[in-house]
Design goal:
This protein is mostly beta strands. The protein contains 5 helices and 26 strands. It is about 10% helix and about 30% strand. It comes from Hibiscus syriacus (Rose of Sharon).
Length: about 450
Protein backbone atom coordinates (compact mmCIF):
# COMPACT_ATOMS: atom_id res chain seq x y z
CA UNK A 1 0.00 0.00 0.00
CA UNK A 2 1.38 3.42 -0.94
CA UNK A 3 1.61 6.28 1.52
CA UNK A 4 -1.27 7.98 -0.25
CA UNK A 5 -3.43 4.84 -0.11
CA UNK A 6 -2.65 4.63 3.59
CA UNK A 7 -3.75 8.22 4.12
CA UNK A 8 -7.04 7.67 2.32
CA UNK A 9 -7.72 4.45 4.16
CA UNK A 10 -7.87 6.29 7.46
CA UNK A 11 -11.30 7.09 8.73
CA UNK A 12 -10.73 10.83 8.88
CA UNK A 13 -8.64 11.18 5.69
CA UNK A 14 -7.21 14.72 5.54
CA UNK A 15 -9.29 16.08 8.39
CA UNK A 16 -6.71 15.70 11.15
CA UNK A 17 -3.78 17.20 9.24
CA UNK A 18 -3.03 20.45 11.03
CA UNK A 19 -3.13 23.72 9.08
CA UNK A 20 -3.98 22.00 5.81
CA UNK A 21 -4.97 24.70 3.34
CA UNK A 22 -3.85 23.33 -0.02
CA UNK A 23 -4.48 19.97 -1.69
CA UNK A 24 -3.23 19.33 -5.23
CA UNK A 25 -3.59 15.76 -6.46
CA UNK A 26 -3.06 16.00 -10.18
CA UNK A 27 -2.94 13.47 -12.99
CA UNK A 28 -0.76 10.96 -11.16
CA UNK A 29 -3.50 10.62 -8.56
CA UNK A 30 -5.78 9.01 -11.14
CA UNK A 31 -3.94 5.86 -10.11
CA UNK A 32 -5.74 5.99 -6.77
CA UNK A 33 -9.20 5.89 -8.31
CA UNK A 34 -9.73 2.29 -7.29
CA UNK A 35 -12.16 0.16 -5.41
CA UNK A 36 -9.89 -0.13 -2.38
CA UNK A 37 -9.93 3.61 -1.72
CA UNK A 38 -13.70 3.80 -2.03
CA UNK A 39 -14.17 0.66 0.04
CA UNK A 40 -12.16 2.13 2.92
CA UNK A 41 -13.91 5.50 2.84
CA UNK A 42 -17.45 4.87 1.71
CA UNK A 43 -18.86 7.71 -0.35
CA UNK A 44 -16.27 10.37 0.47
CA UNK A 45 -13.10 11.36 2.26
CA UNK A 46 -12.90 14.01 4.99
CA UNK A 47 -11.53 17.51 4.41
CA UNK A 48 -10.86 20.23 6.99
CA UNK A 49 -13.11 23.30 6.80
CA UNK A 50 -9.99 25.48 6.63
CA UNK A 51 -9.19 24.18 3.15
CA UNK A 52 -8.73 26.98 0.59
CA UNK A 53 -7.50 25.15 -2.51
CA UNK A 54 -8.67 21.72 -3.65
CA UNK A 55 -7.42 20.27 -6.93
CA UNK A 56 -7.98 16.54 -7.45
CA UNK A 57 -7.96 15.07 -10.95
CA UNK A 58 -10.12 11.97 -11.08
CA UNK A 59 -11.86 12.62 -7.75
CA UNK A 60 -13.34 9.12 -7.13
CA UNK A 61 -16.30 9.86 -4.85
CA UNK A 62 -19.92 10.76 -5.57
CA UNK A 63 -19.78 14.03 -3.65
CA UNK A 64 -17.68 16.12 -1.33
CA UNK A 65 -17.91 15.07 2.33
CA UNK A 66 -21.37 15.76 3.81
CA UNK A 67 -19.79 17.31 6.91
CA UNK A 68 -17.43 19.54 4.92
CA UNK A 69 -18.23 23.26 4.94
CA UNK A 70 -16.61 25.09 1.98
CA UNK A 71 -16.77 28.47 3.72
CA UNK A 72 -13.02 29.07 3.23
CA UNK A 73 -12.68 27.40 -0.16
CA UNK A 74 -11.43 29.73 -2.92
CA UNK A 75 -10.52 27.33 -5.73
CA UNK A 76 -12.12 23.99 -6.54
CA UNK A 77 -10.78 21.91 -9.46
CA UNK A 78 -11.99 18.33 -9.87
CA UNK A 79 -11.22 17.44 -13.49
CA UNK A 80 -12.54 14.06 -14.65
CA UNK A 81 -14.19 13.54 -11.28
CA UNK A 82 -16.82 10.89 -10.53
CA UNK A 83 -19.05 13.04 -8.31
CA UNK A 84 -22.76 13.38 -8.95
CA UNK A 85 -23.12 16.48 -6.77
CA UNK A 86 -20.82 18.79 -4.79
CA UNK A 87 -22.33 19.56 -1.42
CA UNK A 88 -25.81 19.99 0.00
CA UNK A 89 -27.72 23.26 -0.07
CA UNK A 90 -27.14 23.85 3.65
CA UNK A 91 -23.70 25.28 2.88
CA UNK A 92 -24.48 28.71 1.49
CA UNK A 93 -21.49 30.58 2.91
CA UNK A 94 -19.54 30.67 -0.35
CA UNK A 95 -18.21 34.22 -0.32
CA UNK A 96 -14.58 33.11 -0.73
CA UNK A 97 -15.23 30.88 -3.72
CA UNK A 98 -13.64 32.27 -6.90
CA UNK A 99 -13.07 29.35 -9.28
CA UNK A 100 -15.01 26.14 -9.87
CA UNK A 101 -13.56 23.88 -12.56
CA UNK A 102 -15.43 20.61 -13.05
CA UNK A 103 -14.14 19.82 -16.52
CA UNK A 104 -15.43 16.53 -17.89
CA UNK A 105 -17.22 15.52 -14.72
CA UNK A 106 -19.80 13.74 -16.86
CA UNK A 107 -21.65 12.14 -13.95
CA UNK A 108 -22.42 15.49 -12.35
CA UNK A 109 -26.17 15.96 -12.03
CA UNK A 110 -26.54 18.69 -9.45
CA UNK A 111 -24.65 21.78 -8.42
CA UNK A 112 -25.63 23.99 -5.48
CA UNK A 113 -27.21 27.41 -5.90
CA UNK A 114 -24.29 29.73 -6.67
CA UNK A 115 -26.20 33.00 -6.62
CA UNK A 116 -24.71 33.80 -3.21
CA UNK A 117 -21.15 33.04 -4.30
CA UNK A 118 -20.71 36.76 -4.85
CA UNK A 119 -16.98 36.54 -5.62
CA UNK A 120 -17.20 33.65 -8.08
CA UNK A 121 -15.36 34.59 -11.28
CA UNK A 122 -15.02 31.36 -13.24
CA UNK A 123 -17.21 28.28 -13.65
CA UNK A 124 -16.58 25.25 -15.85
CA UNK A 125 -19.07 22.39 -15.69
CA UNK A 126 -21.06 19.96 -17.80
CA UNK A 127 -24.57 20.00 -16.43
CA UNK A 128 -28.02 19.10 -17.61
CA UNK A 129 -29.85 20.94 -14.83
CA UNK A 130 -30.27 24.75 -14.93
CA UNK A 131 -27.72 26.90 -13.13
CA UNK A 132 -28.23 29.84 -10.81
CA UNK A 133 -25.33 32.21 -11.37
CA UNK A 134 -24.05 35.29 -9.55
CA UNK A 135 -24.10 38.46 -11.66
CA UNK A 136 -20.38 39.08 -11.34
CA UNK A 137 -19.17 35.85 -12.92
CA UNK A 138 -16.76 36.58 -15.80
CA UNK A 139 -15.91 33.12 -17.19
CA UNK A 140 -18.42 30.38 -17.98
CA UNK A 141 -17.50 27.14 -19.75
CA UNK A 142 -20.42 24.87 -20.63
CA UNK A 143 -18.98 23.32 -23.78
CA UNK A 144 -20.37 19.93 -24.86
CA UNK A 145 -23.14 20.18 -22.27
CA UNK A 146 -26.48 18.56 -23.04
CA UNK A 147 -28.44 21.67 -22.08
CA UNK A 148 -32.20 21.43 -21.98
CA UNK A 149 -33.04 24.22 -24.43
CA UNK A 150 -32.08 27.28 -22.38
CA UNK A 151 -29.23 28.83 -20.43
CA UNK A 152 -29.78 30.89 -17.31
CA UNK A 153 -29.92 34.63 -17.91
CA UNK A 154 -26.30 35.57 -18.42
CA UNK A 155 -24.39 38.60 -17.15
CA UNK A 156 -23.74 41.09 -19.94
CA UNK A 157 -20.03 41.48 -19.32
CA UNK A 158 -18.68 37.93 -19.48
CA UNK A 159 -15.04 37.75 -20.52
CA UNK A 160 -15.31 34.14 -21.63
CA UNK A 161 -18.42 32.19 -22.59
CA UNK A 162 -17.92 28.74 -24.09
CA UNK A 163 -21.09 26.96 -25.18
CA UNK A 164 -19.54 25.03 -28.06
CA UNK A 165 -21.35 21.91 -29.19
CA UNK A 166 -24.36 22.51 -26.95
CA UNK A 167 -26.50 21.15 -29.75
CA UNK A 168 -29.81 21.30 -27.84
CA UNK A 169 -29.38 24.93 -26.79
CA UNK A 170 -32.22 27.10 -28.13
CA UNK A 171 -32.49 30.17 -25.91
CA UNK A 172 -29.78 32.60 -24.81
CA UNK A 173 -30.48 35.88 -23.03
CA UNK A 174 -28.52 38.43 -21.04
CA UNK A 175 -29.42 40.47 -18.00
CA UNK A 176 -30.99 43.84 -18.72
CA UNK A 177 -30.24 45.27 -15.30
CA UNK A 178 -28.39 48.53 -15.86
CA UNK A 179 -26.51 48.05 -12.60
CA UNK A 180 -23.72 45.53 -12.77
CA UNK A 181 -20.96 45.26 -10.17
CA UNK A 182 -18.43 44.98 -13.00
CA UNK A 183 -19.79 47.77 -15.17
CA UNK A 184 -17.25 50.26 -13.83
CA UNK A 185 -14.52 47.67 -14.36
CA UNK A 186 -15.36 47.32 -18.01
CA UNK A 187 -15.75 51.03 -18.65
CA UNK A 188 -12.92 52.16 -16.40
CA UNK A 189 -9.17 52.07 -16.29
CA UNK A 190 -8.85 49.25 -13.78
CA UNK A 191 -9.75 46.38 -16.11
CA UNK A 192 -7.51 43.29 -16.23
CA UNK A 193 -4.34 43.58 -18.28
CA UNK A 194 -5.29 40.87 -20.75
CA UNK A 195 -8.62 41.62 -22.36
CA UNK A 196 -9.51 38.73 -24.62
CA UNK A 197 -13.26 38.38 -24.82
CA UNK A 198 -14.57 35.15 -26.36
CA UNK A 199 -18.21 34.27 -27.00
CA UNK A 200 -18.24 30.77 -28.50
CA UNK A 201 -21.44 29.13 -29.76
CA UNK A 202 -20.02 26.94 -32.51
CA UNK A 203 -22.29 24.09 -33.65
CA UNK A 204 -25.21 25.38 -31.53
CA UNK A 205 -27.58 24.95 -34.46
CA UNK A 206 -30.74 24.90 -32.35
CA UNK A 207 -30.35 28.58 -31.42
CA UNK A 208 -33.49 30.53 -32.32
CA UNK A 209 -33.44 33.93 -34.03
CA UNK A 210 -34.14 35.87 -30.84
CA UNK A 211 -31.11 34.23 -29.24
CA UNK A 212 -28.93 35.14 -32.23
CA UNK A 213 -30.10 38.75 -31.92
CA UNK A 214 -29.32 38.70 -28.18
CA UNK A 215 -25.82 37.35 -28.81
CA UNK A 216 -25.10 39.94 -31.50
CA UNK A 217 -26.48 42.83 -29.43
CA UNK A 218 -24.44 41.82 -26.39
CA UNK A 219 -21.33 41.42 -28.53
CA UNK A 220 -21.71 45.00 -29.78
CA UNK A 221 -22.19 46.18 -26.19
CA UNK A 222 -18.90 44.50 -25.32
CA UNK A 223 -17.19 46.08 -28.33
CA UNK A 224 -18.34 49.57 -27.35
CA UNK A 225 -17.18 48.98 -23.80
CA UNK A 226 -13.76 47.79 -24.96
CA UNK A 227 -13.36 50.78 -27.28
CA UNK A 228 -14.21 53.23 -24.51
CA UNK A 229 -11.80 51.61 -22.10
CA UNK A 230 -8.92 51.34 -24.55
CA UNK A 231 -9.22 55.00 -25.55
CA UNK A 232 -9.32 56.06 -21.90
CA UNK A 233 -5.91 54.51 -21.34
CA UNK A 234 -4.02 57.52 -22.58
CA UNK A 235 -0.25 57.19 -22.49
CA UNK A 236 -0.28 53.40 -22.16
CA UNK A 237 1.88 51.60 -24.70
CA UNK A 238 0.00 49.27 -26.98
CA UNK A 239 2.81 46.75 -26.62
CA UNK A 240 1.19 45.72 -23.37
CA UNK A 241 -2.27 45.32 -24.86
CA UNK A 242 -1.79 44.76 -28.59
CA UNK A 243 -2.96 41.14 -28.57
CA UNK A 244 -6.25 41.89 -26.85
CA UNK A 245 -9.37 41.34 -28.93
CA UNK A 246 -12.99 40.23 -29.04
CA UNK A 247 -14.05 37.09 -30.89
CA UNK A 248 -17.60 35.80 -31.24
CA UNK A 249 -18.88 32.90 -33.34
CA UNK A 250 -22.19 31.12 -33.88
CA UNK A 251 -23.76 29.02 -36.66
CA UNK A 252 -25.29 30.90 -39.57
CA UNK A 253 -24.88 31.98 -43.17
CA UNK A 254 -25.99 35.61 -42.97
CA UNK A 255 -24.30 38.77 -41.70
CA UNK A 256 -26.70 40.21 -39.06
CA UNK A 257 -28.26 43.19 -40.80
CA UNK A 258 -29.60 44.69 -37.58
CA UNK A 259 -26.03 45.70 -36.62
CA UNK A 260 -23.84 45.40 -39.72
CA UNK A 261 -25.43 47.93 -42.07
CA UNK A 262 -22.65 47.61 -44.64
CA UNK A 263 -22.67 44.12 -46.12
CA UNK A 264 -21.28 42.24 -49.09
CA UNK A 265 -21.88 38.86 -50.71
CA UNK A 266 -18.15 38.20 -50.90
CA UNK A 267 -14.95 39.28 -49.14
CA UNK A 268 -14.85 43.01 -49.99
CA UNK A 269 -16.94 46.16 -50.26
CA UNK A 270 -16.76 49.95 -50.56
CA UNK A 271 -18.72 52.55 -48.61
CA UNK A 272 -19.11 56.28 -48.15
CA UNK A 273 -18.69 58.05 -44.81
CA UNK A 274 -20.27 61.36 -43.93
CA UNK A 275 -17.32 63.72 -43.26
CA UNK A 276 -16.90 65.27 -39.84
CA UNK A 277 -18.90 68.50 -39.89
CA UNK A 278 -17.70 69.70 -36.48
CA UNK A 279 -14.61 71.66 -35.55
CA UNK A 280 -13.29 69.03 -33.15
CA UNK A 281 -11.71 65.74 -34.13
CA UNK A 282 -13.21 62.34 -33.49
CA UNK A 283 -12.20 58.70 -33.41
CA UNK A 284 -13.47 56.23 -35.96
CA UNK A 285 -13.89 52.59 -34.96
CA UNK A 286 -15.20 49.56 -36.76
CA UNK A 287 -16.10 45.96 -35.97
CA UNK A 288 -16.06 43.35 -38.72
CA UNK A 289 -18.26 40.35 -39.38
CA UNK A 290 -17.81 37.53 -41.84
CA UNK A 291 -19.34 34.20 -42.81
CA UNK A 292 -17.11 31.22 -43.57
CA UNK A 293 -16.98 27.44 -43.46
CA UNK A 294 -13.99 26.38 -41.33
CA UNK A 295 -14.84 22.67 -41.16
CA UNK A 296 -11.43 21.65 -42.49
CA UNK A 297 -9.42 23.91 -40.19
CA UNK A 298 -6.48 22.13 -38.58
CA UNK A 299 -4.30 25.09 -37.55
CA UNK A 300 -4.49 28.42 -35.77
CA UNK A 301 -6.04 31.10 -37.96
CA UNK A 302 -5.55 34.77 -38.72
CA UNK A 303 -8.58 36.91 -39.52
CA UNK A 304 -7.21 39.78 -41.60
CA UNK A 305 -8.94 43.05 -42.46
CA UNK A 306 -7.30 45.32 -45.05
CA UNK A 307 -8.81 48.75 -45.49
CA UNK A 308 -8.27 51.91 -47.54
CA UNK A 309 -9.50 55.34 -46.55
CA UNK A 310 -9.96 58.47 -48.68
CA UNK A 311 -10.16 61.95 -47.15
CA UNK A 312 -12.28 64.86 -48.39
CA UNK A 313 -9.10 66.33 -49.90
CA UNK A 314 -8.47 63.18 -51.92
CA UNK A 315 -5.60 61.74 -49.86
CA UNK A 316 -5.63 57.96 -49.64
CA UNK A 317 -4.43 55.83 -46.73
CA UNK A 318 -4.13 52.07 -46.32
CA UNK A 319 -3.63 49.75 -43.37
CA UNK A 320 -4.62 46.35 -42.05
CA UNK A 321 -5.48 44.71 -38.76
CA UNK A 322 -5.27 41.08 -37.74
CA UNK A 323 -6.89 38.91 -35.07
CA UNK A 324 -5.11 35.61 -34.38
CA UNK A 325 -7.38 32.86 -33.09
CA UNK A 326 -6.18 29.56 -31.65
CA UNK A 327 -7.42 26.28 -33.05
CA UNK A 328 -9.06 25.48 -29.71
CA UNK A 329 -11.64 28.22 -30.29
CA UNK A 330 -12.63 27.18 -33.79
CA UNK A 331 -11.89 23.46 -34.10
CA UNK A 332 -14.78 21.24 -35.18
CA UNK A 333 -16.85 24.16 -36.48
CA UNK A 334 -19.15 22.29 -38.84
CA UNK A 335 -20.54 24.20 -41.80
CA UNK A 336 -21.11 27.94 -42.14
CA UNK A 337 -20.53 30.10 -39.07
CA UNK A 338 -20.74 33.82 -38.39
CA UNK A 339 -17.64 35.46 -36.87
CA UNK A 340 -17.52 38.92 -35.25
CA UNK A 341 -14.13 40.48 -34.46
CA UNK A 342 -12.72 43.62 -32.91
CA UNK A 343 -9.31 44.76 -31.67
CA UNK A 344 -7.43 47.98 -30.93
CA UNK A 345 -6.17 48.36 -34.50
CA UNK A 346 -9.80 48.94 -35.50
CA UNK A 347 -9.79 52.32 -33.72
CA UNK A 348 -8.21 55.17 -35.70
CA UNK A 349 -8.21 58.96 -35.82
CA UNK A 350 -10.82 60.27 -38.23
CA UNK A 351 -9.01 62.61 -40.62
CA UNK A 352 -12.18 63.65 -42.45
CA UNK A 353 -12.48 60.37 -44.29
CA UNK A 354 -15.35 60.18 -46.76
CA UNK A 355 -14.75 56.83 -48.46
CA UNK A 356 -13.54 53.45 -47.26
CA UNK A 357 -12.97 50.03 -48.77
CA UNK A 358 -12.52 46.77 -46.89
CA UNK A 359 -11.16 43.33 -47.77
CA UNK A 360 -11.43 40.40 -45.35
CA UNK A 361 -9.32 37.25 -45.41
CA UNK A 362 -8.89 34.11 -43.33
CA UNK A 363 -5.64 32.17 -43.52
CA UNK A 364 -3.71 29.74 -41.38
CA UNK A 365 -0.06 29.99 -40.40
CA UNK A 366 0.92 27.89 -43.42
CA UNK A 367 -0.57 30.53 -45.71
CA UNK A 368 -3.62 28.53 -46.76
CA UNK A 369 -6.69 30.73 -47.25
CA UNK A 370 -10.32 29.97 -46.44
CA UNK A 371 -13.13 31.46 -48.46
CA UNK A 372 -14.99 34.41 -46.96
CA UNK A 373 -18.52 33.91 -48.24
CA UNK A 374 -20.05 37.13 -46.91
CA UNK A 375 -18.84 40.04 -44.81
CA UNK A 376 -19.94 43.24 -43.14
CA UNK A 377 -18.78 46.11 -40.96
CA UNK A 378 -20.25 48.23 -38.18
CA UNK A 379 -18.75 51.73 -37.96
CA UNK A 380 -19.10 53.99 -34.95
CA UNK A 381 -17.51 57.18 -33.65
CA UNK A 382 -16.20 58.14 -30.25
CA UNK A 383 -16.12 61.42 -28.39
CA UNK A 384 -12.47 61.74 -27.38
CA UNK A 385 -13.30 63.70 -24.22
CA UNK A 386 -16.43 62.00 -22.95
CA UNK A 387 -15.73 58.59 -24.53
CA UNK A 388 -19.35 58.38 -25.62
CA UNK A 389 -20.35 56.30 -28.62
CA UNK A 390 -22.08 57.65 -31.73
CA UNK A 391 -23.58 54.83 -33.75
CA UNK A 392 -26.10 56.75 -35.86
CA UNK A 393 -26.35 54.90 -39.19
CA UNK A 394 -29.20 55.34 -41.65
CA UNK A 395 -30.05 53.72 -44.91
CA UNK A 396 -29.32 55.80 -47.97
CA UNK A 397 -30.26 53.84 -51.06
CA UNK A 398 -28.66 56.45 -53.31
CA UNK A 399 -25.26 55.47 -51.91
CA UNK A 400 -25.57 51.77 -52.63
CA UNK A 401 -22.65 50.41 -54.60
CA UNK A 402 -23.20 48.35 -57.67
CA UNK A 403 -23.10 44.57 -57.29
CA UNK A 404 -24.00 43.35 -53.79
CA UNK A 405 -23.05 46.19 -51.44
CA UNK A 406 -25.59 47.89 -49.20
CA UNK A 407 -24.30 51.24 -48.01
CA UNK A 408 -25.54 53.69 -45.41
CA UNK A 409 -24.57 57.22 -44.53
CA UNK A 410 -23.11 57.83 -41.11
CA UNK A 411 -24.20 60.87 -39.14
CA UNK A 412 -22.25 62.23 -36.23
CA UNK A 413 -23.79 62.82 -32.84
CA UNK A 414 -20.71 63.88 -30.89
CA UNK A 415 -17.50 65.77 -31.36
CA UNK A 416 -14.44 65.98 -29.14
CA UNK A 417 -10.86 67.06 -28.75
CA UNK A 418 -8.00 65.19 -30.33
CA UNK A 419 -6.82 61.94 -28.84
CA UNK A 420 -3.78 60.30 -30.36
CA UNK A 421 -4.17 56.72 -31.49
CA UNK A 422 -1.34 55.03 -33.33
CA UNK A 423 -2.30 51.68 -34.85
CA UNK A 424 0.58 49.29 -35.22
CA UNK A 425 3.44 48.23 -33.00
CA UNK A 426 4.17 51.74 -31.78
CA UNK A 427 0.63 52.98 -31.27
CA UNK A 428 -0.10 54.75 -28.02
CA UNK A 429 -3.14 56.31 -26.45
CA UNK A 430 -2.02 59.84 -25.57
CA UNK A 431 -2.92 63.50 -25.68
CA UNK A 432 -0.90 64.48 -28.73
CA UNK A 433 -2.48 65.54 -31.98
CA UNK A 434 -0.24 63.80 -34.52
CA UNK A 435 -0.93 60.56 -36.24
CA UNK A 436 1.56 57.88 -35.27
CA UNK A 437 3.99 56.23 -37.66
CA UNK A 438 2.16 52.95 -37.24
CA UNK A 439 -1.16 54.35 -38.50
CA UNK A 440 -2.71 54.14 -41.96
CA UNK A 441 -0.03 54.75 -44.61
CA UNK A 442 -0.37 57.36 -47.33
CA UNK A 443 -0.76 55.86 -50.79
CA UNK A 444 1.44 57.60 -53.35
Amino acid sequence: MTRFDSLLSRRHGFENILNLRYIDLDTECLLFQNENVIAHNGDSVSFPDELRYLCWSGYPFKSLPPNYNPKNLAILKLHFGCMEQLWNEDHQDLVNLRIIDLFYCIKLRKIPNLSRAINLKSLCCHLVEPLELPNNITELNLSHTVIKETLPELPRYLWFLDARNCTSLEKVSFTDDSFNPFHSLHDGDGAPRREIISMLFSNCRSLNQDSIKNIVANTMLQIHSLAQRWVRRKGISLGEYRWDFLFCCFPGNEVPEIVFYYRSMDYSFDLKITPNGFSGSRLLAFAVCLVADLTLTKRNLEFICKYRLTTTSGEKFASKCCVSVTLAKICNCKGDHVFILFNQDMIIIDNDYEEASFELYIRNLAGDEFKVEKCGVNIFYMDAEGYTISDVMRWDKSNQNSDSQEVANIEVAHDGSATEIRPGDERRFGNGGEEGDGGPKTLK
